[in-house]
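Hi R.,

Here are the chain sequences for the assembly we discussed:
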Amino acid sequence: MLRCEHCNIDLPDAPKRCPLCQSTPTGEAAGSDYRFPVLPTSGKTVSRILLAWIAFGSVCAAAVCVTINLTLPAGGWWSLFVVAGIASLWADFAIMIKKRKNLPKGILWQVAAVFLIAYAWDRFTGFYGWSVDYVLPILCTCAMIGMTLVAKIRRLHIQDYILYLVMDCILGLVSFALLLADAVRVAIPSAICFGASIIFLAALLFFEGKALWAEIQRRLHL
Amino acid sequence: MAQSKQWSRLDNAAKIFPPTTSRRDTKVFRFVCELTQPVDGAVLQRALERALEEFPLYRSVLKKGLFWHYFEESGMQPQVMEEKLPVCAPIYNADKPGPLFRVSCYKRRINLEIFHALADGTGALQFLRAMVFTYLAMRYGVPGRLADYDAARDQKNLDAFYQYYDKTKNVPSVKRYRAYRIRGEKLPDNRLGITEGFLSAKAVLEQAHEHSATLSEFLVALFICSIYDGMAVRERIRPVVVTVPVDLRRFFSAQTARNFFGVIQIAHNFRKNGQGFDSVLAHVKQSFERHLTKENLHGIISRYSAIENNALVKAIPLLIKIPFFRLAGWWANGEDTAAFSNVGRVTMPPEAAGHIRLFDVFLSTRRPQLCLCSFGDTLAVSLSSPLRDTGLQRRFFRRLTEIGIPVQVVSNLEQSSGEEGTHASV
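And here is the predicted structure of the full complex:
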């Protein structure tokens, strides 16, 4: 067995240096008797490098647009739209990446994120109301169908998606409430969304009422 | 209709772990069982499946509720893997529910890594023993069974804090220290440096008894002195504080396989409480005696539980609780210099013990942490630290060899060193 004469310790693992004082051990190594595998420190993965390039590309695009806009200011401040667009895309992309492991949850987050971004754009571009007229009801309806498809294809347990589906239905009802409150001017999307929400909620309550109740209990336990 | 999944609350101590977990501090600990023969992964997989039947809570995933995290039963089948991740690599990921433990093997070692919210050392040890014993029974036909741990399912899943929480108890006030902190360059990739020392339990015990101290008192005193030797003179005004988790099962009857521990702090101020090993040991002994009374420990349980059972704390949504927990964790980080935990003696039936060389344990940590456990006459003392510097390790183990105790040291510090070639080339 190797030995470090400075520390007076035996080194059964046959390291190149004494782990305590880093001096060279003496004696004969008793074979390759290691307790820990060699694990090289991680280099950069392909996805990291790709992400860095895409991020770099979008910053470059934004910078170029702002530069052109500054040198040729005749067409108004259009570069602000480019910058805000890139920022919106990245904000949404970040949420998508973070929640990618749990699809129903990710879908619900997308509904919220895309709606908020759309609302912000609507608000700052004259407030024509398209975000509540079209975006919210269409998102909610698509999310209901999307979650159901994901659940069927991935054979998810009912408790893995029921709460997200219910929350989406409630968002659908909010869209209907906005219609009643005259905040929505185009009725058709909100009406369809309302119908779909009611149908989905009824199906969940009648067929999976117990599971829903169990899920609510566990999620809300104090 | 699909069957409703079982779920359970986190026990009191577990609640702090999910919010305070980070890449730098993964709240993962590893138990090692080193056998005399190389491990057969396929057999170990079957042994793991058998052990999981006995410990169904270990199949849980951790989920977020509106107010607290909770465990949810899952049907997943954890796989035994050849060790290929750094020690105590992250297990819990809030966005990806998965098993809360990991079993890997490398050569003769079986490694069980557990996220601390699931269990403490004693709880995890029961799981490891069951798995190792089943492995040995399958691989070598070891007869008999583990007779000393026969907790029923409800006993294993018990939240013992809840059981012993007494509202009427006086809650002892805690002394807050601004402890000396060891600083330095960290290992790359948030890795953890492990230095394991194998000693003769008998030899160390003899030394401890010569000083009329227990093993823990003796080693804590030795540890504090090793820390002191590395302190700069101007830093010596700060106390050296060693946090010691105490297994409450030793004081309150419980067989839970989850968390049931409380922490006490052993503080030594070299200006006030004296220098030199003998005065440190005397002071450490005194501190242990003061803290380790049933009365005081009951107070600790009540202090922990009072926070959890406070109606206001309960009613705050988890989203808001999490930053507070993080802040508390960060605050508590500055209050100790190092930590010391003694898992104690691990026993196995004699037929199985012949196939086992030793048991060892260590913990992910942001400050140096000394863990010990013994098996037969082998006392494994592991020092884990995120720092590159090994001065503390050297001083501690040299102090042991200086008093005539032979030490064998293995370490993972060459694990990540690419520049000097690999082990395989030796």
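Residues 419-426 of chain B have pLDDT under 50 and may be disordered. Chain B has 13 helices and 15 strands.

Let me know if anything looks off.

Best,
T.
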